[in-house]
């Protein structure tokens, strides 16, 4: 049911430094019907005076917030993730607006994440690598950088609007006010239902991260990657697989290939028959 769509979205804050911001974020996500807040290596006390003062009646969001040390922990169980950025990056994937990209988090019944960077620097290129799509909020080019809590508030509002559209269309379907005549005319809610089986097989992002780490180690070992260029090459490889939407079984197969390569490199003697 689409009533549960927002409950599946987690707001991930990477190294938040200000208790006032964290408290304000807790308040606005509760205002908008979201429930999950994850803090990655926070630099402030989520239950401190500043945070609780700004949260007002959303202290329960702070109390229930999950504290983790790394991004893979924050994304454990998620199949979709969007990262936010305030500036253009040297990445091939386009930067999308909230209204364009955020429906993707709700259109399938899977766990998803919306990732925000620290107040002083935003997300690094390494941190952006954990996401499949990227969001930038359009703003005044003379002063484009928004406060962290403002950014979360804008995105939370847009997510709420998407959910309301899904609920409205569900109600129309139940009442018989909308007839689906072709696959091209499916509503988002009907599309979400069709995604159920397909999306449930998709590999979680933490499983993909384990695969990426193994792939990088093997490719370094065989000389395809070099230490000084590994990061940029791996960014491109990550984006290939992120776009592909590989399943859990496919990740297992790919990891099996690399495991066999690791075994051969470790235990088999070198081939001396080649000149």
UniProtKB/TrEMBL annotation:
The keyword S-adenosyl-L-methionine applies. GO terms for molecular function: RNA binding; tRNA (cytidine(32)-2'-O)-methyltransferase activity; tRNA (cytidine(32)/uridine(32)-2'-O)-methyltransferase activity. GO terms for biological process: tRNA nucleoside ribose methylation. The keyword GTP-binding does not apply. Keywords: Cytoplasm, Methyltransferase, S-adenosyl-L-methionine, Transferase, tRNA processing. Gene3D superfamilies: 1.10.8.590, 3.40.1280.10. Catalyzes the formation of 2'O-methylated cytidine (Cm32) or 2'O-methylated uridine (Um32) at position 32 in tRNA. Homodimer. This is tRNA (cytidine/uridine-2'-O-)-methyltransferase TrmJ. The gene is trmJ.
